[in-house]
Structure formats: C-alpha cells, structure tokens
Design brief:
By secondary structure, the chain is of the alpha/beta class. It has twelve helices and 23 strands. A hairpin with a 3-residue loop joins strand 14 and strand 15. It catalyses: meso-2,6-diaminopimelate + H(+) = L-lysine + CO2.
C-alpha cells in the first residue's frame, strides 16, 4: 500500500499521521474525522516557492483555498508566506478573520456581487481577478465613487482543453469563466480597463482545469497568454507586469494516477516564459500560480467507523461507514476514485474486496466500489486517503447529517481546528412556523 507524507504504521499496527495514532484520534474526536498532515502541506508549499527562487523569477504562490477553507489553514498559509486565492465573500470573510495579509489576497469568481466587490475594496485586498464585462463596470464604478485604486487581472480562456474531467475543465473556449482570447473578448475587456485612472491592470490570468498530470497544457496556455501580452505591447505600448497561470496540478488518488513533482509544472512554466521573453525582448513578468489540491489533497485523510455489512452473493460485499456523500460528494459527482486502509489493523492482509458505502439514503452513496481492506469487522477504523481537497469544502447536511470535525497533526501533536457539527447546529437557522387560526401567518 502507498502511504503519503508523514503517514506510517506504529508498533500497534495502527496508521499514524504526523506522528499521531489515528485510532487515538478516532477515539478522542469521533468519526467521521478529517485529519490533515500539516507537514506535507508545508513541504509542498516550500517546493513551489523554492523552484521559482532557484530560477531567479519573482513569483507569488497563492493557495487556492476553495479546495479547503478554514481560519486555521489560512493561518498555516500565512506562516508559509503564501498568497491567498478566494472566490467568494465567505472565503474573504474567513481570510479577514484569520488576519491574512490583505495585500496578498486575490479575489476570483465568475459572478461576484456588488456587495462582495465593495467588501474587497473595504479590506484593501491585493488584486481582483475580473471575469466578465458586468464586473468590469462594477469595479470601475466602485473605484471611481471611492477614488480608490485597485489592482486587477483579466481572466482569459486560452482555448486549451486539458486532459481532465469535463466538470473541472475551465480553459477551453466554451467556459463560463473569463474572456476568450480568440474571439476578441479579451481585447475588448483590456480596452475598458486600459488607462483607467483608478484601475491598475497588472496582466492576465488563466486556469485550464484541475487534476492535470501533463505539462503540455500549461505550456500551450503560457504561450497563448505571452503572445497576447506581446500583441498588447505592440498595439498599446502596454506591458503586463504579472502572468498568472493558475493551478490544477494533479495528485495521486490511486495507483493508476501518475502525478509529476510540483516543481515539474513550475519548471515548464518558467521555461516557456523565459524563452518567449528573450525571443520578444519582453520584460520577464512576475509569475503567479494557484495550487490548491496539490497542497491539501493528499495531506488529508478521512477516518470512518465501519458499521453494517451486507453480502450480495456472487456480486459484492458492502461495508457501510458513518459518513458518505454528505462529507465527500466527489465519488458521486465526478466518479472520483480513492484508496482505503483498515487503520486499526494495518499489518493484516488487505485482501478483502469490498464496496465502502456511505450512510446517506441514496443508492449512489458509494465512496469506493473496489476497496481492498483487512477482513472487515464492525468498529474498524477505515481510513480513506487523499480527501483533503474538495471534500469538506463541498460537504452538505444531506439527510441532516452533521459535518465532521477536522484535526491538524504535526510533529506528534494534534489540534482540533473545526469542531464537529451538532444536531443543534443543523437546526440553528430554522425558523418555526408562526401559526394562526387560519394557518400560516402572512
């Protein structure tokens, strides 16, 4: 079996993360429980930053926090001197609560509201990544009314079809995100912002998709954006000071996945940019990237407790756990694949083929269809690896199930950073019906 980061097996035959026994964690905090290996997060962040440093290129590595947002993870990102990519007022509010450096916050999103944009101005954030023409007008209106400057990037779609799932491909021409480079939209957007007294247009941004294993797509995107930068210099004497090439770097969920080391993606970007700036005598822009999944994905492990079991002779054996699609929608939404182990019996043969099913009232609530674990016993602690990205951030209260607790582990220490929801939390926003003799009050 493949272990990740600081994971190991102790003398009791238990899975450990960050030097902490996962069985102890399950007993202390209950299950489902999402456990983060913070040392692995730090290692990945450092690798991205050092690759740019070695090349002598000015860069910002921004944590794409839609993968997993919380005050605590923002505080770790701040410790690592990362920038921060937020995509909503809620994520921005969380960043403010974490006292994240405002000048290092980049605000994304394809339908930012006027209120959200005002919030960004209120906080004096570092950059707004403008996604559409309505947003251009709103940013201009707010900046003019306040007579306050704002840094802006234009999000563009470079026409690159990355080899990934349709739902997580974003760089092709038919996308809800950004201005198309090929049909003239990007030029129209540029002209609306160019030379505006309160808009500081830094450059361009693109994001071509998620869970990408090859570097070719990043190369094609970088070439497309650099060509447009050269074009704008020739036509308007405008120099882009920032080139943001997004994220989407793949991680290993199963043995079939073959991700590259984080530095490989960065090195390919650097190579293209340096080649083209030399060819066109163009000033080397500051490069920004936005890793999310590649920072937190395989740093996260979800612990469940095995419950009911059902054997369908000749077909499959179901092992039900105390979570499911409510805390990890990805298998149902994307047909995402995962790997599991029996955390309390790691040394036992993991040769029993089972389907790990969730407890939600849906036939499709299956976390893993072909999992190989130790011969299952009620009460086993089942660990599913690489659940750090897009699980808790996409979690719901379907069937009115409480969201799980989250624990950070590092150097033999553990800390609760998100408490488990209670039933009281679930009904906290409910408003009882106010009845009259004729029924519902008006």
């Amino acid at each position: 079996m493949h272990l990740y980061g600081t994971q190991s097996v102790n003398n009791h035959g238990h899975l450990t993360i960050g030097g902490v026994d996962t069985v102890d964690l399950a007993n202390m905090y209950g299950t489902p429980l999402l456990v983060y290996d913070i040392a692995l997060f730090r290692e990945r962040a450092k690798a991205f930053k050092e690759t740019f440093k070695k090349a002598g290129i000015n860069a910002q590595v921004a944590y794409a926090s839609k993968a997993f947002s919380s005050i605590a993870i923002y505080e770790v990102a701040k410790q690592m001197d990362l920038s921060l990519d937020v995509v909503s007022g809620g994520e921005l509010f969380t960043a403010v609560a974490a006292d994240f450096p405002r000048e290092k916050i980049h605000f994304h999103g394809n339908n930012k509201s006027y209120t959200e944009l005002q919030f960004a101005f209120d906080e004096g954030i570092g950059c707004i990544v403008v996604d559409n023409f309505l947003e251009i007008e709103m940013v201009k209106e707010i900046s003019e009314a306040r007579q306050e400057k704002m840094n802006v990037l234009l999000r563009v779609t470079p026409g690159v079809n990355a080899s990934t799932h349709d739902y997580i491909t974003t760089g092709q021409e038919d996308s809800k995100f950004g201005f198309d480079l090929k049909n003239g939209q990007a030029d129209d957007a540029f002209l609306k912002l160019y030379n505006h007294p309160y808009i500081n247009l830094l450059g361009m941004h693109c994001h071509i998709g998620s869970q990408i294993f090859e570097t070719d797509a990043f190369r094609f995107a970088a070439v497309a954006l650099m060509n447009k930068m050269v074009d704008w210099r020739e036509k308007f004497k405008f120099i882009c000071s920032v080139l943001n090439l997004g994220g989407g770097f793949g991680i290993r969920y199963t043995v079939e996945d073959t991700p590259l080391h984080p530095s490989a993606y960065v090195e390919e970007m650097e190579k293209v940019v340096l080649e083209m700036t030399r060819t066109h005598n163009y000033p080397v822009p500051e490069i920004w990237i936005e890793p999310g999944r590649s920072l937190v994905g395989d740093a996260g492990t979800t612990l469940y407790t095995a419950g009911a079991m059902k054997e369908v002779p000749g077909i499959r054996t179901y092992v039900a756990v105390d979570g499911g699609m409510s805390d990890n929608i990805r298998p149902a939404l994307y047909e995402a694949k995962y790997t599991a182990v029996t955390a309390n019996r790691m040394v036992d043969p993991h040769s029993d083929k089972v389907t790990i099913a969730g407890k939600c009232c849906e036939s499709g609530d299956k976390l893993i269809e072909d999992a190989y674990i130790a011969e299952p016993v009620e009460g086993d602690i089942i660990a599913i690896f690489c659940t750090g990205a897009y699980t808790y951030s996409m979690a719901s209260n379907y069937n009115r199930l409480p969201k799980p607790a989250i624990v950070f582990c590092e150097d033999g220490q553990h800390q609760l950073v998100v408490r488990r929801e209670t039933y009281e939390d679930i009904i906290r926003l409910d408003v009882p019906l106010q009845k009259t003799e004729h029924g519902v009050s008006s």
